[in-house]
Amino acid sequence: MYGDSILVKKGLIVTSTIIYKADIKIIEGKISEIGSNLSNSGVDEVIDANGLYVFPGIVDEHVHMREPGLEYKDDFAYGTAGAALGGVTTVLEMPNTKPPVEDSKVFKEKLSLLSHKANVDFGLYGVIHNSNADKFEELVNAGVVGFKVFLGPTTGNIPPPDDGSLYEVLLKSAKLNVPITFHAENAQLVRYFTQKVKREGRNDPAAHMDARPPICEEDAIRKLILFSKWTGGRVHIVHLAAKEGVGLIKEALSRGIKVTAETCPHYLLLNSRDYEKYGTAIKVNPPIRSEDHQKALWQGIMEGAIITLGSDHAPHAAEEKEGDVWRCAAGFTGVQTFFPLMLDQALKGRLPLTKLTELMSENPARLFGLWPRKGAISVGSDGDLVIVDPKVETVVSKDWLKAKYPITPYLGWRLKGKIRYTVLRGKVLVRDDRLVAEKYGMFVEPMRSKEKL
User: Fold this and answer.
1) 6: helix, coil or strand?
2) Which residues contact 340 (CB under 8 A, 6 or more apart)?
3) Fewer CB near the terminus (10 Å): N or C of the chain?
4) Does any domain span residue 38?
């Protein structure tokens, strides 16, 4: 099952540094040649990509596909089908399913369950909480792509490790070169502010923003930077939403502390003024904030403080997204719109096309030990491509979205650019909005090395 053979001709290849026109030959799933006028001998299909952009397959480092245990919200087959339709060829699946991925036994059970349902390639996170720090090496040996630590309350209510356990696992992170991703909010402050806002009698959608103000992120990130300084551990802040966090990361990088950060399209494209329009549909953790935070995140991307993007794909059943702000669940489907939303921004001139490859393919693959197998268009890499027509629009609709509950604030949005093909290891998965090959995905295990991003 390791790949087909195709030739992609005359496409505009988008790397993290340049855009150039060339042919790409993929033989048995691997890129074998890149050049001009390549022969079509030995290939099963020739794709004419003249006038089209060719990106390396998108690596979404942050998805919650909800399986096992929460399949009523969505499941791995649906989620990875949506990924393929959105140009994502590799997903890294978060561990707060039921049961959480807290030891090698649960990891192996989840891997076995998902392996026959995957429409794209996938890696699995382990979780570190307040009583399983001793399972770190066990999970690394099992093949986790990295770890997730929830410092703030989230789906599953997984308690954070105490400071001693956190220090210990960051020492192990440095020794074994394994990234640890953090939901960086101070849980005690979140509880305090939530109770305060509730006492005020508020239940409007924007109350969620005030129940988790920027100090919650700032405090947690400051602590993680301190711990990274003293341990050398690989701290990666996910779904960064606060401008104070951007400032702290810039300062840490200037001092040689290698903390990295991710943000998400919803923080870049929505702000507090959108609560009136979209209501609880845009309730996420951390919350979408005011325009000054939004601007700081864009600046953080362009200045290198934020090095990756993730969708934080977090689907829920329809009834869970209804009711007032306190009853409504946080999160919404995002893996399928992840790349089209950012492609739209690039085609409108908000950021270079090459920056998309850097943020959404190369850097995630590097960070999690998958590069250059994933995230690159280079000889020897997996033949994972997303081929885009910049002259055609994508309309986000319920019919287009592949999800049990296609709940998203982006319904009706018209986006510049359209995915013509999604290719995984030489196999065409998507052709003009149709999933034409299913269950072709496979598990990818990271390559551990001493090199850090």
Assistant:
1) strand
2) 86, 87, 394, 396, 415, 417, 419
3) N
4) no
Q: What are the tokens at 310?
A: 């993730």
* CATH number of 294's domain: 3.20.20.140
Task: Label residue 177 left, alpha or beta by phi (over 0 means left) and psi (-120 to 50 means alpha).
Answer: left
Q: How confident is the model at residue 71 (pLDDT cuts 50, 70, 90)?
A: very high
Peptide bond into 372 cis (omega under 30): yes
Angle (nearest 5°) at CA 119 between 116 and 125: 75
The domain of 142 spans 57-367
Q: Does the N-terminal peptide bond of residue 352 adopt cis geometry, omega within 30 degrees of 0?
A: no
Residue 267 in domain:
yes
d(CA 212, CA 154): 12
**Nearest C-alpha neighbor of 413 from the set 432, 431, 430, 400:** 400
Q: Dump pLDDT digits (tens) for 355-409.
A: 999 999 999 999 999 999 999 999 999 999 999 999 999 999 999 999 999 999 9
327 is written with which tokens?
């009853």
Per-residue pLDDT, 152 = 74
Q: Is residue 437 part of a domain?
A: no
Q: Say how many domains are in the chain.
A: 1
What tokens were used for 74?
Answer: 């969505």
d(CA 400, CA 421): 15
Q: Give bridge partners of residue 33 from the DSSP assignment.
A: 25
CA distance 50 to 389: 10
In a domain, 419, yes or no: no
- Nearest CA-CA partner of 83 in 429, 395, 330: 429
Residue entry with tokens 């910049």: 390
**What pLDDT is attached to residue 452?**
43
The arithmetic mean of pLDDT across residues 82-109, rounded, is 97
